[in-house]
């Protein structure tokens, strides 16, 4: 099991570097293709693209993104869920604008859809179906269009590739056959498809037919955007060009490089006939990137920014507030991505010579040191934004303030450097979108405290390598000399590139060294040692009775900076399981939760929060965690508790019966528990033997005299013999009571537990407590449909197996007799296929290992 986990972790680390290797290979191919050209040739071709061609490209881009929304509309029709068109279009557009610019596009698109569609009322099951339908649609359209193009307009492959096939026609026939086979299965295959625990219902033949047509049209329009930008007359028909475009796009997607950057371009140039003008094609690709990728991303950011402004001025209904919360969760990574793109633009523009006409005026009017400093600072600002984007993703307030400052500085330096209107406009839009979002960035943590994931490091490396390669290409005609470093002239751009590159690398290196010099990451102390007095002191001040689980002695603790709050947790494998919400003042929770997640990440583990309450779910949603309902907690109001009335007649009858039979109740204070330890242990051992079970832990107490000495214990006596006992958890401020261990002798009469509960509630009411917590009724309200996510089905399986041991269904029915108020409890963890493993680890932690899970 541990070996499998290590393989998974290693695979996660390898994938980003695999993408980086492909990117470097693609850059090498591009450099070889362009070795006889100059940057000026490409810039001339970019400027030669007419406004009419740009206009047509914009039209086809709009049509392409509108067509992509058809995936979601068909998916909603497939799952038979009605949703207003405007909401569907917004969700689909933001999803594709985001996923087209990052690696792992399916995962990114699924995350966007989860946050928005869940706010619009779709269940996790339905969202899963929508994501699978849209992903299948994308590749169905590819198969259909590629099959037609490769079959009837076969593309000849270069002999330099040494492929066994000379043309793409055999592959085209295969892809076309797969498309027809899929449609045929939906036409004649009425029965659901079953795979292990999953059951798939295929769409009807009408939906599948439209699905193929819409997806093929999407690919067709995406190719048309690039084709209309190419110079006319272009010596290649659209069908021939479309074949090259489809191959290049698939290579970019498979590479997992963000947006297929470099890979798409290199494959396209490799397959383009040698007779074509390479600078023309590459110049067109630059404009295509801006129109089809960056422009929709900026529009999506602006739309969400406008939504945030409206949310601050308009009073929303409950449903709208839920939607706004989903927008917020989605908005943060999108903002982070947009800021990252802004930094990349500054890095790229700093690597090439100025091309604007007003530069001569700037040279004559502004002092040379001012121009040199503007260029140098512009590149440093670009690298700074790349680094700060990670802090924005993690909601650091310092990252927000610095990002605003750097964006403002970048706007000024970019404009003064060479009147770069494009970069200036992009940075201005990013700044305006970021300005009203101050409330999202509330974490007062060090910028150096956040770890860069392998994916982030690779993304920064790709931008840095690209800017260096771009500069080397732009100044390839300049012979390198040591004197270049010290040449300062308005007409000498190569020295400025060298200095800016070294400055950017020095900034990145400085941040890296500072991170290496920071204090060592938190290492959890071994569990089982004595509970620190600082933990007990915080527990005594907590309004939650479940905070007393910290006193079991089987947990580890992570404190916040001022040691006023802590998280109690256990470690099993690669899972760090926090027990409940943090203990301490709620205003101390936010940074502590992020600190816990970061500590787990530093050790290659995943952070999980078990049995968290609904009052503070926004903390976990902010961290991008998924929520799984575990059950509901029963709380009885003691302010009006009594045995009078029709609703309590059964409890009243049992209580009076045992009192008349000679049973009594008493409270033993903590300092006197030692005298009763042997008797209570004998009762506990007999109870475990009768139930054919063994001690648990973590979320459940176990018999330990040292642990019991923290609490008062309620005893039931008969003829001076102890028949049953329960230790009583108390919270601060007489807010809540609860019970942990509750055990009785095998010969105890029926109803002894009811008697003990009633006596403890009456005792608590007399002392001024407001609530009695009966604990959790596990796994209530789980989805068990055919298409339910595997972890819901897994939990349902656990419920039925566990019911044999713990009678979960009977537990809820038993608690109902006290007329409690139910409130939900959740598991907050990363979604996806890791959840079944997470649930298994939690079960092993509670049961003392996998063996304990199976052997009660």
Taken as a percent bin, the fraction of beta residues is 5-15%
Number of domains: 4
Largest sheet: 11 strands, mixed
Distance between the termini: 21 Å
Structural class: alpha+beta
Radius of gyration: 32 Å
Quick one: overall form? elongated
Mean pLDDT: 81
Helix content percent band: 55-70%
Subcellular location: Cell membrane
Organism: Desulfosarcina ovata subsp. ovata
GO molecular function: aminoacyltransferase activity
Domain Phosphatidylglycerol lysyltransferase C-terminal: 540-828
Give a quick rundown of the structure.
It comes from Desulfosarcina ovata subsp. ovata. With 856 residues, the chain is of the alpha+beta class. The protein is 59% helix and 11% strand.
């Amino acid at each position: 099991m541990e070996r499998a986990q290590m393989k998974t972790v290693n695979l996660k680390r390898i994938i980003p570097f695999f993408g980086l290797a492909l990117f470097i290979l693609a850059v090498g191919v591009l450099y070889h293709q362009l070795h006889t050209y100059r940057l000026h040739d490409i810039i001339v071709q970019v400027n030669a693209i007419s406004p009419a061609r740009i206009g047509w490209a914009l039209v086809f881009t709009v049509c392409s993104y509108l067509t992509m929304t058809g995936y979601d509309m068909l998916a909603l029709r497939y799952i038979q869920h009605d949703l207003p068109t405007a909401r569907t279009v917004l969700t689909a557009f933001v999803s594709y604008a985001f996923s087209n610019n990052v690696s792992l596009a399916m995962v990114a698109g699924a995350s966007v859809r989860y946050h928005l569609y869940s706010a619009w009322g779709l269940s996790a099951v339905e969202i899963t179906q929508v994501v699978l339908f849209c992903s299948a649609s994308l590749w169905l359209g590819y198969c259909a269009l590629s099959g037609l193009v490769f079959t009837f307009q076969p593309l000849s492959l270069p002999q330099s590739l040494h492929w066994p096939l000379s043309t793409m026609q055999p592959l085209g026939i295969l892809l076309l056959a797969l498309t027809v086979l899929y449609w045929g299965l939906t036409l004649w295959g009425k029965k659901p498809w079953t795979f292990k625990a999953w059951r798939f219902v295929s769409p009807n033949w009408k939906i599948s037919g439209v699905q193929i047509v819409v997806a093929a049209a999407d690919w067709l329009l995406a190719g048309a955007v690039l084709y209309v930008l190419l110079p006319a007359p272009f010596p290649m028909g659209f069908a021939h060009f479309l074949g090259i475009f489809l191959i290049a796009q698939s290579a970019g997607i498979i590479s997992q490089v963000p947006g297929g950057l470099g890979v798409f371009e290199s494959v396209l140039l490799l397959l383009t006939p040698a007779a074509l003008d390479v600078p023309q094609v590459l110049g067109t690709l630059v404009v295509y990137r801006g129109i089809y990728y960056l422009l929709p991303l900026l529009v999506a950011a602006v739309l969400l920014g406008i939504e945030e402004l409206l949310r601050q001025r308009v009073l929303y209904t409950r449903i709208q507030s839920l939607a706004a919360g989903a927008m917020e969760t989605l908005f943060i990574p999108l903002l982070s991505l947009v800021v990252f793109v802004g930094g990349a633009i500054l890095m790229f523009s700093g690597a090439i010579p100025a091309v604007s006409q007003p530069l001569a005026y700037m040279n004559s009017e502004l002092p040379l040191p001012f121009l040199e400093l503007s260029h140098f600072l512009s590149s440093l600002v670009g690298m700074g934004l790349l680094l700060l984007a990670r802090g924005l993703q993690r909601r650091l307030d310092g990252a927000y303030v610095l990002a605003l400052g750097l964006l403002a500085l970048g706007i000024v330096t970019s404009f003064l450097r060479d009147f770069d209107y494009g970069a200036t406009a992009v940075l201005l839009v990013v700044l305006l979108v970021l300005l009203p979002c101050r409330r999202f960035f509330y974490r007062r943590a060090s910028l150096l405290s956040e770890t860069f994931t392998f994916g982030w490091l690779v993304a920064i490396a790709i931008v840095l390598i690209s800017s260096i390669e771009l500069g080397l290409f732009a100044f390839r005609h300049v012979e390198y000399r040591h004197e270049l470093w010290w040449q300062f002239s308005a007409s000498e751009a190569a020295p400025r590139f060298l200095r800016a590159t070294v400055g950017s690398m020095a900034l990145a290196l400085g941040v890296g060294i500072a991170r290496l010099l920071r204090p060592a990451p938190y290492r959890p102390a071994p569990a089982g040692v004595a509970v620190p007095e600082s933990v007990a002191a915080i527990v005594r001040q907590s309004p939650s009775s479940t905070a007393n689980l910290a006193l079991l002695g089987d947990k580890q603790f992570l404190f916040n900076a001022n040691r006023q709050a802590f998280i109690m947790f256990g470690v099993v494998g690669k899972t760090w399981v926090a027990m409940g919400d943090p203990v301490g003042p709620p205003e101390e929770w936010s940074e502590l939760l992020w600190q816990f997640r970061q500590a787990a990440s530093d050790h290659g583990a995943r952070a999980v929060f078990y049995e968290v309450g609904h009052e503070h779910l926004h903390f976990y949603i902010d961290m991008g965690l998924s929520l799984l309902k575990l059950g509901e907690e029963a709380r009885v109001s003691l302010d009006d508790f009594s045995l009078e009335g029709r609703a309590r007649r059964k409890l009243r009858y049992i209580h009076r019966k045992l009192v008349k039979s000679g049973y009594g109740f008493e409270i033993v204070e903590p300092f006197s528990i030692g005298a009763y330890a042997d008797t209570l242990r004998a009762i506990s051992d007999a109870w475990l033997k009768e139930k054919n079970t063994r001690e648990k832990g973590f979320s459940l107490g176990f018999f330990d005299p040292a642990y019991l000495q923290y609490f008062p214990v309620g005893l039931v006596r008969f003829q001076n013999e102890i028949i049953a006992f329960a230790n009583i958890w108390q919270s601060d401020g007489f807010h809540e009571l609860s019970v942990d261990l509750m055990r009785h002798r095998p010969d105890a009469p029926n109803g002894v537990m009811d008697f003990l509960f009633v006596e403890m509630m009456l005792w608590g009411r007399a002392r001024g407590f407001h609530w009695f917590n009966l604990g959790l009724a596990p796994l209530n309200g789980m989805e068990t449909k055919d298409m339910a996510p595997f972890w819901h089905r897994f939990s349902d399986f656990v419920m039925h197996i566990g019911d044999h041991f713990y009678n979960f269904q009977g537990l809820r029915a038993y608690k109902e007799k006290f007329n409690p108020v139910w409130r939900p409890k959740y598991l907050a963890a990363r979604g996806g296929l890791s959840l079944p493993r997470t649930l298994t680890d939690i079960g092993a932690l509670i049961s003392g290992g996998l063996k304990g899970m199976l052997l009660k």
